[in-house]
């Protein structure tokens, strides 16, 4: 990716060239820590070696056991769904990808009613093998398959850790199974079996995704001025230190809309600790120019906007028209219009002194997606190093998971007792 920090200089909050140069010494130290973590295969840092350690042949050998399906249904949540969803939703395929990452009964029922279950691969993913939402959804899906006369054991792929309920299920029914790599938290697992099985089932080039990750891995250096991932991580960190507590991520490409969701998990779960962090907000250009942009430009000066776009787009000419007021559009294209909107938003934010960062990728394809995902992970790890937080843990999320399991009778978790302590101040409707 290419990062332009120019519109974060002298804004409110803002950076200066000198601030960045001073910060670059800390970036060099952090880079040393990151490369040592990678070399030692340390927990979390191991994610940044995935472009070399992930085995695309093993993924293909497993996914090739299924004839090309009509659809893939992934049952997983958080890091076990969003990486695959980002890639699947960015690229065209005649194999539809669906994601059950919530336990909303209406949505689950509606999806199961319309899926061609006999020609769907069910891809159930959980690193821990214990996540209640995922396992509950899988039980519902399995029952729906049986009710439709489909042998679920023939249509199910499991991706999980070494032990746990899902591993036991895969072993008991001799299901095709992929291993979640060791030492890689879910939100950092897009470039592994977790993120790549769905694209493989859809016929995408997973080697190219990993090659993009490798390009990014090889581009890491000890200076933010030479490494776009670190430029992004260091600038977002320094802006947060100066009061940019929200990072509004605004891709100008529908194909990257899910990327913003993936980014939100990465940023929030990794960096939101010890009273620190930066709230990721999700927006989409140009659509949200007509809604959220008002706040971003004229609201409290507590945010930065990350404007993201591919520089190469599909051709879609706008037809000529004899309507005078619209003549300026004729002969142009939808892509040119979207790019003009991008530049206009960037300029409008800069004119109002709102810091914004331009992030560009060459095009939306396997290689560039692999590179983007890796670079944002590296940016996040760098931010975590600079902020001094424990990037790879998520104790607050675990707390809620335990409380929910305790409430459902899934074990004795003191966290569940807190539900009884809830304060009330109700206002009831008639
Ligand atoms: O893959 P699983 O073990 O099912 O976990 C799925 C998700 O659960 C939790 O909420 C974690 O905080 C996420 O980081 C994780 O991705």
From TrEMBL:
One of its GO terms (molecular function) is glucose-6-phosphate isomerase activity. Keywords: Cytoplasm, Gluconeogenesis, Glycolysis, Isomerase. SUPFAM superfamilies: SIS domain. This is Probable glucose-6-phosphate isomerase. It catalyses: alpha-D-glucose 6-phosphate = beta-D-fructose 6-phosphate. It comes from Halorubrum rutilum. It holds the Pfam family PGI. Transmembrane segments: none annotated. The gene is pgi. Pathway: Carbohydrate biosynthesis; gluconeogenesis; Carbohydrate degradation; glycolysis; D-glyceraldehyde 3-phosphate and glycerone phosphate from D-glucose: step 2/4. CDD domains: SIS_PGI_1 (cd05015), SIS_PGI_2 (cd05016). The active site is at residues 269, 290, 401. One of its GO terms (cellular component) is cytoplasm.
């Amino acid at each position: 990716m290419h990062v332009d920090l120019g519109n974060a200089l002298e804004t409110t909050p803002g950076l200066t060239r000198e601030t960045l140069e001073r910060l670059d010494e800390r970036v060099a130290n952090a880079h040393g820590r990151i490369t040592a973590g990678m070399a030692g295969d340390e927990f979390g840092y191991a994610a940044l070696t995935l472009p070399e350690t992930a085995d695309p042949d093993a993924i293909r050998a497993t996914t090739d056991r299924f004839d090309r399906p009509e659809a893939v249904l992934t049952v997983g949540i958080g890091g076990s769904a969003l990486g695959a969803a980002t890639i699947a939703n960015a690229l065209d395929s005649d194999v539809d990808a669906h994601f059950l990452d919530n336990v909303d009964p209406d949505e689950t029922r509606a999806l199961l009613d319309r899926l061609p279950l006999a020609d769907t691969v069910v891809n159930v993913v959980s690193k821990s093998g214990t996540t209640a939402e995922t396992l509950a959804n899988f039980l519902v899906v399995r029952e729906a398959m049986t009710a439709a006369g489909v042998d679920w054991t023939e249509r199910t792929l499991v991706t999980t850790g070494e032990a746990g309920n899902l591993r036991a299920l895969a072993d008991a029914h001799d299901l095709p199974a992929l291993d979640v790599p060791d030492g890689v938290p879910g939100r950092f697992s897009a470039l592994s079996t977790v993120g790549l099985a769905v694209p493989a089932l859809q016929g995408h080039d997973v080697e190219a995704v990993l090659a993009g990750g490798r390009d990014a891995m090889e581009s890491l250096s000890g200076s933010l001025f030479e490494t776009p991932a670190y430029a992004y991580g260091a600038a977002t960190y320094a802006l947060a230190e100066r009061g940019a507590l929200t990072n509004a991520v605004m891709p100008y490409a529908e194909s990257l809309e899910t990327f913003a969701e993936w980014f939100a998990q990465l940023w929030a779960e990794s960096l939101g600790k010890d009273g620190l962090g930066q709230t990721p907000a999700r927006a989409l250009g140009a659509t949200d120019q007509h809604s959220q942009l008002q706040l971003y430009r004229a609201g409290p000066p507590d945010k930065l906007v990350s404007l993201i776009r591919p520089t190469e787009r599909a051709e879609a000419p706008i037809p000529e028209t004899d309507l005078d007021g619209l003549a300026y559009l004729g002969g142009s294209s939808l892509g040119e219009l979207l790019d003009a909107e991008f530049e206009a938003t960037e300029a409008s934010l800069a004119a109002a002194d709102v810091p914004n960062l331009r992030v560009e990728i060459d095009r939306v394809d396997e290689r560039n997606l692999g590179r983007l995902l890796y670079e944002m992970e590296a940016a996040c790890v760098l931010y975590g190093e600079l902020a001094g937080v424990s990037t790879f843990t998520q104790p607050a999320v675990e707390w809620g998971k335990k409380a929910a399991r305790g409430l459902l009778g899934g074990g004795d978790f003191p966290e569940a007792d807190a539900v009884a302590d809830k304060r009330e101040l109700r206002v009831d409707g008639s």
